[in-house]
Amino acid sequence: MINEKVENVLNAQINKEFYSAYLYLAMSAYFDEIGLYGFANWTKVQAREEVDHGMILFDYIIDRNGTVNLQQIDMPEKSFENPLQVFNKIYEHERSVTESIECVASMSEEECDMATRNFINWYIAEQVEEESNVMDVISKLKMFADDKTALYLYDKELKEREYKAHSYKL
Ligand code: FEO
Q: Which protein residues touch ligand 1 with a CB less than 6 Å away?
């Protein structure tokens, strides 16, 4: 059985992960519209990873004999200005997800739920990687500034990103 307070924050985290998927899909659609197909691919792959993040939490709650409580997913923003603005938004969003994950870790400790505290470590490490990946894109976009040729070549590079399923098993 899982502690009720911990169960609540895990359910809230499922919602945040699925919202993240929606947000990345909205960004992918924007990039597709402006012809940056590599950026569209990168954000679409990220959306699939976010669904995995949500599903891992879903499976974990079930494995702990808890109750999954799916909540309404907010509509994501859909008007964007340029790639740098989008990636700045992504960074801001991922920082908020990191804070949310840290709150799950903190709640697990407060409630002496060491299984969840241990489980959530995977997410803490994942957030370090995600923030770093986003900062990498931001640095490059700042470096290119208005150089369209560099942007074109970088877009081709981002097209190479492939989806790899994330999974979890107790
Ligand atoms: Fe699942 Fe991008 O955090």
A: 17, 20, 50, 53, 94, 97, 130
